[in-house]
TrEMBL record:
Cofactor: [3Fe-4S] cluster
Species name: Streptomyces caniferus
Residue stretches in coiled coil: none
Source organism, top-level taxon: Bacteria
Claim: Metal-binding is one of the keywords in the record: yes
Record-linked InterPro entries: Fe-S_cluster_ET (IPR051269)
Designated name of the protein: Ferredoxin
One Pfam family in the UniProt entry: Fer4_13
GO molecular function per UniProt: 3 iron, 4 sulfur cluster binding; metal ion binding
Keywords, in A-Z order: 3Fe-4S, Electron transport, Iron, Iron-sulfur, Metal-binding, Transport
Amino acid sequence: MKVVVDLSRCQGYAQCAFLAPDAFRMHGEEALMYNPTPDDAQREQVLRAAAACPLQAILVDQLEERDAPVQAPPS
Ligand code: SF4
């Protein structure tokens, strides 16, 4: 799976590092480090982290929607 974090949005709230510590890690107080290609075994954790990010800075599988959860279209 592919993960991109918009670091211009990220404010270092660390929700992602808490929920998916294998994929996201805080480096110091505010700098986020992450694995852009986490193993599919981490999918659940990563999706949870993306959902929990208060700034929606985590984008998951934007190019391959295959296993993406179904979302209602924006109204
Ligand atoms: S949860 Fe969002 S804002 Fe917080 S560190 Fe992760 S990507 Fe950044």
